[in-house]
Design goal:
Radius of gyration: 23 Å
Shape: elongated
Strand order of the largest sheet: 1-2-3-4-5-6
Order of helices and strands: EEEEEE
Number of helices: 0
Distance between the termini: 59 Å
Number of strands: 6
Largest sheet: 6 strands, antiparallel
Strand content: 25-35%
Helix content: under 10%
Amino acid sequence: MSGSSKHTLTTKPNEETSETEEATDERVLSDGRKLVITEGSEPIVEIRAASGLLELRIQLTEAGPVIQMEAVRMQLKATESVEIESARVAIKGTKAVAIEGGQVDLEAKEDVDTGASGEVRVRGKTIWLN
């Protein structure tokens, strides 16, 4: 790993006993970011900006890894496909949401609800209802 070879290792004592509960290893990367690894019951790997703001966190929980990312922009690119599968998926755009593709299919096993505070427009060569 490139960057500063200097790193710090700190431990956080458990207040109820004298045992050490968490150990933190911190390395400064060449661009000023910090790689922080915290060992404990649920280990955490973080990348923090030089300012200290969190950019990426991976927390290893009993249920599996939890990934948190905070960025100005995020891009996913794949030559074949990108798939998201979950019990619940929520996409929120504070200004706009756009879906574009060669062929766009929307299919639901249950009801589909569409709502808008403004007008709703459907454009196409032919629009089939039922």
